[in-house]
Amino acid sequence: MRAQFILSETWTNLRRNLAMLLSLMLVTFISFLFIGASVLTQAQITKAKGDWYDKVEVVVWLCPDGTSQSANCASGKSPSAKEITDLQKTIRDELNDVVAKIDYVSKQDFYDNTFTKQYPNGEYQGRTLTADDMQDSLWLKLKDPTKYQVVAEVLSGKEGVEDVTDQRQIFDPVFAVLNRATAVTAVLAGVMVLVAILLTGTTIRMSAASRRTETEIMRYVGASNWTIRLPFILEGAIASLLGSVLSCLMLSAIVRIFITGWLAQSVTWIPYVNQLTVLMISPFLVLGAVLISVIASTISLRRYLRA
């Protein structure tokens, strides 16, 4: 009987405060949509980093023929085959615990397999470059991509080495932008959650105030505090539950339409978040929304429904 009474009171509250509950549901929807977007963005960054950082290599650019600003290239000549072999041996001896693999890439190979793919016909900044304008290089696959600095310290001063670059430098600015986007989204989500908490408290207080006479009668006939409060708490929890479920469905639609359905088809070399990612974070979003609503409702009711 008590459970039936509580559910009946909850349904009555929902019907009486439909407009307020719709606004609460909408605020919860927007709030947790921002939170979900922030989590998905960070998940995307983590996924891309894990994939890209495993593939990136340290490139040791060898001295070109002609002038170079590097002190290691004072001779004006590119290293001979023997000098390149000696450099590879040095890398194996001094960086054996850091470097997993060494690949030598000649000027011609770099021009054919890399440069012309990025710049068709060899046209770069108004000039048409040839293989002779390229540099020989050594591409190092690291056992731990974070050990780039160790490699740079060992090789930067070696004769015949013009420069040592880490391919991660290409991706880090992109990740920095995405991290800032995540931070902005998280701040907006925090503001919206605060609005949801305040609106939840206000809605429940107004609902309790409109039924103050009924709750007083219930208290006189011996109803417990929780019997009186629970319908109001459930009222906010249901609205928050519906709002958070809608936000999860919207996140799923966004990922399906814009990520897996469009972006993943256009840019295929990046790993993307998918429906499984949305499915993994959805329970936390729903649980968080309901929990926030229950806490906000409980606190707001203490003032109006004191024993």
Automatic annotation (TrEMBL):
The keyword Transmembrane applies. Residues 56-164 form the FtsX extracellular domain. It comes from Bifidobacterium colobi. Belongs to the ABC-4 integral membrane protein family. FtsX subfamily. InterPro entries: ABC3_permease_C (IPR003838), FtsX (IPR004513), FtsX_actino (IPR047929), FtsX_ECD (IPR040690). It is a multi-pass membrane protein. It is found in: Cell membrane. This is Cell division protein FtsX. Keywords: Cell cycle, Cell division, Cell membrane, Membrane, Transmembrane, Transmembrane helix. Residues 187-305 form the ABC3 transporter permease C-terminal domain. Part of the ABC transporter FtsEX involved in cellular division. The chain crosses the membrane at residues 21-40, 183-204, 237-259, 279-301. Forms a membrane-associated complex with FtsE. Gene3D superfamilies: 3.30.70.3040.
